[in-house]
C-alpha cells in the first residue's frame, strides 16, 4: 500500500524517527532535576531572555508610574520606622552586651519585582529580578506586606524563580501566633486558582483553634524565618481518627495581586514576628469576614524598607 | 487545509511562536492570552513529514518546559505526540474550509490540554470533569478562534490557501 511518502518503508522510517524523538522527550522528562535545571537555565538565558527582559522593563515602568503621594506616604512611614528601630536596636545591643550574648544577625531583605510566567507549565511559579549577585539563594523566603508568598527554588546571577504557596510542593512548618497549636501548612487546590486555599494539617486533636486565629511560620528547619504570617483560620477541614485535625486557612497573600516583594537574604533563624506583631493582616481578616482592628498597618513597613531591616 | 510548505508560511509560523511568548512572558498575560504555540504547531505540522513534526513538537515543548520547575519535559512529550499525530492526520482528512481548520485546532488544543494534564505533576486539579468539559473546551475555543483570525490575516497577506 502506498502512502503520501511513496512507500510503506518510508512510513516505517518516519515512525521510527518519530519514536526516537518521543523517547528523547521522555528522557528529558525523567532526567534528574540537576540536569533539567541546567537545560532550563540555558533556554531561559538565551532564547527566552528577550521576553523575560521585556517583562522586567515593563515592571520597572509600572513601578515608576506609581502615584507620588503613595511614595511620599511610604517615605514618611519609612522614616518613622527607621527612627523607632534605631532606638530599639541600640537598647537591644546594650542588653545583650550586659548579658554577655553575641549580637544576632539582622533580618536582611532585597526588594524585587515579580515577573509573571504566563504559560501553563509555569503555573504557581514566578520570576524575580534579583539573583545570587544580590544574595538570593535557593530556599530564600519571598515575602509580601501581608505575609509569606513563597520560596525561591532556583537562582541565577541576576534572576530567580520561586514557587508560591499554591504550588503542590509548598510546605511550611506553622503554628498559631499564640504558640498553642503546631502543624504543617500546605496548599489546597480549588477549582480555579482564585479558589486555592491553605490548610494547617496535623494539628493536635486536643487543640481547638478558633476561626480568625493567625497562623505564622515556626522557623523550624531553618528554611523560612519564624513569625511570617501565612493566613487566618477559616474553620476545621477534617478531624481524622489518627488524633489529628486539619484546618483550612484563608491565605494572607493572594499571589495574583502581588507585584513587589522582599526576598530574605539574612540567616533563616531570625524571628520576624516583630514586623507583623502577630496580628492577622487586614486582607486576611477581611477575607475571613472579620474587621481589622489594627490602626497602624505593620506590614506597610515591609513595603517601604529595603536592605537591612 | 493547504499542505504546501512555503517560506512565507514558516515566517507566519515563527511570528505565531514569537507572539505567544511576547504575550505570555513579555507581557505576563497568562491565561488571558491564547495558546498560540499549540496553534502554530497544529498549523505547521500539516505541511511536514511525521518525523519533522515530532521534532518541531519537541523543540516547542522544550521552550515551554523551560519555565516549569516540577514538570520539565511534560509539554515536550505532549507536543511531540500531538505534532506527529496531527501530521499523520493528513492521511485521514483534508480540508481548506475555515470550519474544518477551526474544528482541527479546537480538537488539537483540547487533546494537548488533556495530554499535559495527564503528565504534569504540578497542575493536576481535583475537578477533572470541570476541567475536561468546561475549562479546556473554552481555552480550545479561544485558541481556535484566534488561530482562524491569524490564518485569515496570513491568507489575505500572501494569497495562499
Return the structural class of chain B. Answer: mainly alpha
Figure out the total of helices of chain A: 6
The number of distinct β-strands of chain A equals 13
Strand content of chain B: under 5%
For the CA atoms, what is the radius of gyration of chain B? 15 Å
**Average of the residue pLDDT scores of chain B:** 88
The shape of chain B is globular
Secondary-structure element order of chain A, N to C: HHHHEEEEEEEEEEEEHHE
Oligomeric status of the shown chains?
Answer: heterodimer
Which strand-content bin applies to the residues of chain A?
25-35%
Mean pLDDT of chain A: 77
Descriptive report:
The complex is a heterodimer of chains A (309) and B (161). With 309 residues, chain A is an alpha+beta fold. Chain A contains six helices and 13 strands. In chain A, a hairpin with a 2-residue loop joins strand 3 and strand 4. Chain A is globular, with a radius of gyration of 24 Å. Chain A starts with 7 loop residues before the first helix and ends with a strand. With 161 residues, chain B is mainly alpha-helical. Chain B is built from six helices and no strands. In chain B, helix 1 (7-26) packs antiparallel against helix 2 (36-44), helix 2 (36-44) crosses helix 5 and helix 4 (74-88) packs antiparallel against helix 5 (98-119). Chain B is globular.
Which key terms come to mind for this protein?
heterodimer, A: 309 residues, 6-stranded antiparallel barrel, 6 helices, globular, disordered C terminus, B: mainly alpha, 0% strand
Please sum up the structure shown.
The complex is a heterodimer of chains A (about 300) and B (about 160). With about 300 residues, chain A is α+β, with helices and mostly antiparallel strands.
